[in-house]
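Records of this kind hold a single protein each, on a pair of labelled lines. Below, a sample record shows both lines together.
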Amino acid sequence: MTKILDRIQGPEDIKKLSPEDLSCLAQELREYIIEVVAKNGGHLASNLGVVELTLALFRTFDFPEDKVVWDVGHQSYTYKILADRKEAFKTLRLWQGLSGFPKTEESPYDAFNTGHSSTSISAALGILRAERSQGNENYVLAVIGDGALTGGMSFEALNDAGQGDENLIVIINDNQMSISENVGGLQKHLQQLRMSQSYLDFKSKAEEFLLKIPLIGKGLAHFFSRVKKNFRRRISPPIYALYESLGFKYYGPIDGHDIQAIETALDAAKFRKGPTVIHVCTVKGKGYSYAMHKPSSYHGVAPFEVEKGVLEKDPVVVVQDKTCSVQDRINKSRSYGEGFSYILQHFAMKEDRIVGICAAMAQGTMMEEFSTIFPERFYDVGIAEQHAVTLASGMAQGGLRPVVAIYATFLQRALDQVMHDVVLNQEPVIFCIDRAGVVGEDGETHQGLYDLAFLRSLPYGTIFTPRSNRDFYRMFSYALGQAKGPIFIRYPKGKMALSLEDDLAIKTYLENTGQDKLPVTSAQWLSGGKDLTIISWGYTTGLAYQSMKALAEEGIEAAVVDLREIHDIDPALVEKALSCPCLIVEEAIYPGSVGEDISAIAYGKKLQTPLQCINIPNHPVLQGPRNLVLDQLGISVDHIVEEGKKLLGR
């Protein structure tokens, strides 16, 4: 028998399906999503939860004439499949393949590019107003998760939309989670709403009864509505106030896996004047038992075997082990995130003023074990990066030592707070910035390439870039000793380029040359060489060191310099490095980069030595495996060796 999905050639085909066929199609869609994500990696649990909701949207509205904005966008896989990308979905998150997020360049069905949280209501309202200004009466919707509602921007948009009579339709996909389990007052509010279904059913039937009474029915209905509103304000103000007092009509909660029930609410919203909130409750990971039982572990996954599920990682916990000290455990770890987890726990055991802060990313930032060991010192503020940063500043002013663990791409959302609330106050907040650089499969919305230029332009602050966890440990220790000013420690996703053997060889070289005693804010020469100098920092130091060894096999002696701290570049160091041709290798875009600074210093000193920068062009970097993307951008050992030989005329 032919699969129903194979017969779907466009949205109109979905509208013709029977309830039985729709149920089969939902199952087929889940199987297809699981198959592709298991092969390519991607966001799984959230997409499995919105299959029926997406089908109901296609059956009720006429896309792309009608518009839908998916918040964050990571849960739009079913939408992509049904909206003209069924075959292309197999290339999801691959190099030059389909993006894991909505993308207007991909399809006219995608109304707005999204990748960060809490933006959908603002964007949808803007699109609606633009459509109305041109005389278009098509519908505009925003689909936002309850996790994204913890972001302040969503409330700003609700406040704006509720003051008029524009028929914006906001769908709250309530699965009680963002990435980790949701936190805060809003989560409690939504729990209250879930329990009020019987009240809402009674309200609807009572209104219908009153309106049927001849002559006085309408007046009675209006009178009891006013009494009801006053009563609800008194007995349960959070339930009533959040949406209806903002000017929205509220429908729900609705079973998010009942297509007919969702369609009924959507039809009602289409034909009323003014903004509407439709509250649907879905199960994250529905249809795949592993994801249903551990939705946090199946939010974003690497490739896995469908039958076995994702490979669970051992907890990164600092334990007293007689055969391996904590310091050795940190030094031997090849993952930056794992190293951070060990380091944070290690120092928190010694310093009780350390507190950890994250924005709904405890698992992603490797703070989960810290939160388990020190629950009273851990604060997950929800998807609210601006609040997280200013909260940390207040804590630092009060004598605590806050550690803010955040992705580089999400730090962009709080740059104003970094400047005004932390830097200008010179508060000793420690920022541990994960995913700094190329992130890989999540694509251009998640690349950690744009925070660096801002951070380097700030009047105060120290920016560390560890080449290994041995260095990370020293940098974190230094940060704890600082009484003034923020510390930013930037490190990329995944494993470091520096091998354990090379790290130990560098340690020996530094001890032999006396550089192991240098302060951690000073650059280090990791090798000597008279032909070429390679300047690097962070992850690329490992690539530079490998390149040095490859060049040596061709008779070229290259010195490798690791800057380590990149907020301020020492002109004397630049002058020394440029005593021979120099190559700068960095995982950064050129504007605001270290290479730009070094070039300016060389120009100011009128140095004529050949100088070449290897960095990332300032254009959106697309999705694909991290190492492949870096290679395509020229951030690789082969490319460094090639450019070094060119610079020397060989």
About this structure: The chain has four domains: 4-194+247-281, 197-235, 326-490, 523-647. Residues 194-200, 231-240 have pLDDT under 50 and may be disordered. The domain at 4-194+247-281 is CATH 3.40.50.970 (Rossmann fold). The CA atoms of residues 643 and 649 lie 10 Å apart.
